[in-house]
Specification:
The complex is a heterotrimer of chains A (about 280), B (about 300) and C (about 350).
Chain A: E1 4-13, E2 16-26, E3 31-35, H1 42-49, E4 57-62, E5 65-66, H2 72-78, E6 80-82, H3 95-101, H4 111-116, H5 119-138, H6 154-166, E7 172-176, H7 184-201, E8 204-208, H8 212-218, E9 221-226, E10 229-234, H9 236-241, H10 243-250, H11 255-269
Parallel strand pairs in A: 3-8, 3-9, 6-7, 7-8
Antiparallel strand pairs in A: 1-2, 1-4, 4-5, 9-10
Helix pairs in contact in A: 3-5, 3-6, 5-6, 10-11
Chain B: H1 2-32, H2 39-56, H3 59-65, H4 71-97, H5 106-127, E1 132-133, E2 142-145, E3 148-151, H6 152-174, H7 176-186, H8 188-193, H9 198-224, E4 226-227, H10 231-246, H11 251-271, H12 279-291
Antiparallel strand pairs in B: 1-4, 2-3
Helix pairs in contact in B: 1-6, 1-7, 1-9, 1-10, 1-11, 2-4, 2-5, 2-9, 2-10, 4-9, 6-7, 6-9, 7-9, 10-11, 10-12
Chain C: H1 9-36, H2 39-64, H3 72-98, H4 102-132, H5 138-155, H6 180-198, H7 201-211, H8 213-218, H9 223-246, H10 259-272, H11 277-293, H12 298-315, H13 328-337
Chain lengths: ~280, ~300, ~350
Amino acid sequence: MSVLVLEKIEKIFGGLRAIGGVSFAVEPAQIFGLIGPNGAGKTTIFNVVTGVYRPDGGRVRFDGEDISGWPPAKVAARGIARTFQNIRLFRSMTVEQNVMVAGFRIHQAGLLSAVLRNQRYRDDEREFRRRAAELLDIFKLKELAGEPADSLPYGSQRRLEIARALMLSPKLLLLDEPAAGMNSQEAMELEKQIRFLRDELRLTVVLVEHNMSVVMAVCENIHVLDHGETIAEGPPAQVKEHPKVLAAYLGEESEEQAVADLEAVSRPLHERPEGPADG
Amino acid sequence: MSQFLQQVINGLSLGSIYALIALGYTMVYGILKLINFAHSEVFMVGAYTGFYTAGALGIEGMEQRGAAFPLYLALVVLMVAMGASALLGVLIERLAYRPVRSAPRLTPLITAIGVSLLLQNLGMLVFTPNPRRYPPIIKEVRFELGGVIVTNVKLTIFVVTLALMLGLWYLVQRTWTGRAMRAVSVNLDAAKLMGIDTGRTISATFAIGSALAAAGGILFGLDQITINPLMGTLTGLKAFVAAVLGGIGNIPGAVVGGLLIGLAEQLVAGYVSPDYRDAITFVILIVILILRPEGILGVVRQEKV
Amino acid sequence: MAAPDRLTTKDWLIRVAISTAVVAGIWGIGQGVQVGLIEYVQRIVLLCGINIILAVGLNLINGTTGQFSIGHAGFMAVGAYATAFCGVKLAPAVTAALGTGAIADGVVFNAALLVGALLAGVAGLAVGVPSLRLKGDYLAIVTLGFGEIIRLLFNNTKALGSATGYFGDNPAGLPPYTSFFWVYVWVVVVVLIVRNITFSQSGRSLIAIREDEIAAEAMATPTTRLKVTAFTVSAATAGIAGGLFAHMQSGIRPEDFKFEKSIDMIVMIIIGGLGSISGAVIGGIFLAVTLELMRDLQEYRLVLYALLLVVIMIVRPEGLLGTRELSPSMFKKKAGAK
């Protein structure tokens, strides 16, 4: 059974159709790419799936359950974790605390336990510290555990967001431009980490990313959006050649030229510190 | 029936004043997402400016002689008060709000509370805490229409409010400043990129909102007879609730909200108990937050993620 | 295998021992204060304690959670009236059972304080639920309204003395239950509760809400529930402070809990640093002392406070400590830096 199914999702902003009937399915332990030019509606889809926006039409199914219109906290608790395009860390908190926040769903010690500092509280804290340390280790952030999150370099902040999301023990992880602002060394490291999540943790990953070499390297299936509509779907090799995709990305250039450009252009373009806003 | 009509007329005239003040709250909130707590003190200062200007124009002497205050001088009083308040509003924004505009959310909020408190207590020092009788800038004339008492003061309130609102509508919809204000309220950063002088636009918003509050202050003085330096607190709160009721950030909403709050207050005072006329605003606030937090005319705004 | 941090019976015994020592210590100092200080200074010392409770409690919602309440005087009023009223009504029954004396007084007072805290907490819940469901600064405006309305309510309640105030059934006024001992026992209890909440999973989530509510939601944090809980606890602590304040004098009047009182509290937490418990303690003491020093400058006091608020916000919005806590390691770090 598919982990995530979108059925004819529509989202309208003040008369503007941001998403016009998009459908796709993500299979278990798949790395699924969601790509498209700026303003194609990729982040909007993430926001619809995670409950930040309510869809104006269509349904979102997760694990067989209709979760359309659920509030974000409920969606997260159900097993969908995400990162944000424009990094939303808890800035003044330390790296370790950032990760531990996401343990709320599984915490056992209520307010009274916390006030009494009883055994349950201690067990909780120990368990969260341990898991946070594990996650920080995976993402090479262990040495920075005690630093305030906003003192981290950009690439590390992106990795911290992933670590924090994983603290939820999700089934599905949505990554919104995780490679933005990373250098090629970091981006390659990220590819490894994404594969690790899938291979070792059996996570399903949906990836929104502009860095085409990352997308092509890790994704098994790619869904391409333009102006809120699906224009192609399939394995990387197939999507890469798709005329509509080339047109959407590069306008009216010759196809051969476009294929070459697609990989060459995408990297320097998206090493900018922050990608432009995406509808 | 005539008693009901009487309450409605009183409610609408009080509501007009709330609406004038609510416009300032809603315009500033629309642009800066800031509850401008100092707005209620701008209203108070407007009322006092009117008070002193009328005094300087010799209203006391005229009153003793039994002569009416000429209409053109009444307009001068209104203009001076509106101008002074506009200046005050712009100064508040420049000196206090602008330095903290990009700070975390709480900083501007606390600053606004601080400025409100500062003006209130400076008012206590300068104007003294004693209530003042408001000079009869418009000499009251009562007439009866089918059992309902209408005064020329109430009529003046309606006329002035209506004129100011038409002026505002023209300004917002038909002028460059108004267009810039609307653009900034949709997206400040984008407006800046489009070459709009956002600093000037924000100043203009404060000036306009403050001038309207000053007009409200004078009308309030005429209507309620006395003023004091703390008059802004409760009236400001009601006007803010009016803005929330109509849909915060929404200009017609502020007018609708103001009129409704004024009506509700008068009806409660008339039919339930005058003790609870202030409490009803609070009840309305709670109810609106539970049932329709975006307000009557407001739309749900989705935060960009 | 027992985990290294297993909480043993011995640990609990140590906790009991420390608590006993602290209570005994407070009692001892209380005796010293009573003998050694003139009544005027004693009063300031009590006010310091009450301010600490107010500031630490308010800081939980305004500082830690980042939801701004500007009507906490209203909750203080609820606590004050409830405590005074319950104490007066409860006293005959308790003295009938336990006789007169310090023990009976203590039982009556603390039972009444708990009722005060409970009712203030319920009021907090009623105010918090509608306003904290929403993002944005609605709490500020709702609490402002609440503070005004609650005063209006007490002003119009005959059973509680209306505008003249509530002085109990006895012509001598309310019994002077509020002693150094009880004030500071409650200071320790409130500070400990707030501290333990702040440094726990719930506390981390509260800070996360302050930092980024949308991200907190995406991490499965029940933001509304947590905000309302923090606000309710905060209101309850203001209720306790109100109860302690009530029994310091012969009676309480609605105007004891004006908007200015709420502003006093805000000044306390902003001076010390929003989000810092130790900062709130410092701010509370600072205000109790300066309020006395500025007694002759009554009319300028609020002008100065207001100016202070604005200037701090522009120049040093993090206050004295920021969100940090005063701790020995903080000084070590500073020393190391030199």
